[in-house]
Amino acid sequence: xxxxxxxxxxxxxxxxxxxxxxxxxxxxxxxxxxxxxxxxxxxxxxxxxxxxxxxxxxxxxxxxxxxxxxxxxxxxxxxxxxxxxxxxxxxxxxxxxxxxxxxxxxxxxxxxxxxxxxxxxxxxxxxxxxxxxxxxxxxxxxxxxxxxxxxxxxxxxxxxxxxxxxxxxxxxxxxxxxxxxxxxxxxxxxxxxxxxxxxxxxxxxxxxxxxxxxxxxxxxxxxxxxxxxxxxxxxxxxxxxxxxxxxxxxxxxxxxxxxxxxxxxxxxxxxxxxxxxxxxxxxxxxxxxxxxxxxxxxxxxxxxxxxxxxxxxxxxxxxxxxxxxxxxxxxxxxxxxxxxxxxxxxxxxxxxxxxxxxxxxxxxxxxxxxxxxxxxxxxxxxxxxxxxxxxxxxxxxxxxxxxxxxxxxxxxxxxxxxxxxxxxxxxxxxxxxxxxxxxxxxxxxxxxxxxxxxxxxxxxxxxxxxxxxxxxxxxxxxxxxxxxxxxxxxxxxxxxxxxxxxxxxxxxxxxxxxxxxxxxxxxxxxxxxxxxxxxxxxxxxxxxxxxxxxxxxxxxxxxxx
Length: 561
Hints:
Strand order of the largest sheet: 3-2-4-1-5
Number of strands: 11
Largest sheet: 5 strands, antiparallel
């Protein structure tokens, strides 16, 4: 065992890494009032082992750090890619604008501290990443610095000292970044005089205003509609979001064919959203009471089900092209992809691994299941081709220089930004190009956790030899700097969200958790306030914020150089 700890060979490297990761993950299980530092414990255990004198060959350590980072950011990109552009729709736009403001304020705050205190801007970048609990930002900063210094001819020792100095700043600022974010939310809750029950009621009303489903029954009385088909009225684009779910004619209830002409006196069960319910009355005629028992076709039992798309032939096809409403009499209500719930828009492109929430008769759903496959057991086999192809493309993109007139060195996306962007684009556009990018959510999480564990352990082991000396020789001020970067931007954005954008408290919780990419804050708010809307809002701003945090860290390093 002593040989494994002292000899810098492959077996010793694996042994030391395994100790750092296993002990860190064990400590991550312990929580104080529901709060844990999670995988950051791996970083601290790596720092401890490094401080105690355990060393790994620098080349091996660099490879492990970089490869772990690539796995981590690529898995994140694949997960958030499908919802990345979707998140800008509806009220996602103001929320993403606020999250952009959160990133920009953090950068400005860090830079002002650098000017006032004279602290190294690279260290401030690490402190900023820790203060907002953003590990990919740390990796991007280290990689950018390493690339730029290598180009300028600095030696390996200088590169290592600089990159691990950034890691030290990150490690010092991270714990208070978690606690400070929670403190901001508790402060805002008191300042806004939040009553959780009233906020839930307000959130429910907001959901109605934003397009919740609304069911009504109308009697066809408008002469202009007599002889018109359902398709003539609704059209391809359906701007009024009117879905004629069932029709009653001569006492018989049935699912209407879109080419069926309407007659005077027909009764229609219509599903729309709150904004368009008045328009439905104007178009069709008198609204009648809704009694769902009267609208169940005799001998037909409507059921809700979830179908998994497992046939590769479905990849690249839109819901409009499948036309399940006309062909199968089934309504698709939601699409679940990589843990993100998407609205079932007609133009949404489907892919293998999507899960469709549907409503219809058992027979109709069974026929649709045959079309899409619905054999979830076949998804258990990992699809590695797009992952490694995407990583290779991401590394290539990351090495391409992007030149700006005012910068001495060209900006590179690096081993964090390149794979992240390629993964996001693959996740979003892959289905349109008939590329199956599906990985099971559990497999995605496994890749991500392995990647972040390797990265954290390698960073900690490298930073350990100088961590204590850095802390003693002025690094204790990093705690204060990190607290300022955590508290000021979050407080400003929370105030803007409440008073300028009139957002409810649950939106603010999701905005701040997603805007700091802080899963600990998300977990805390969900446990405290018990609203699933927090996670939805977190997912709305998370993809763009993650991307901007990576770019911001790189830009700060380039400014330093």
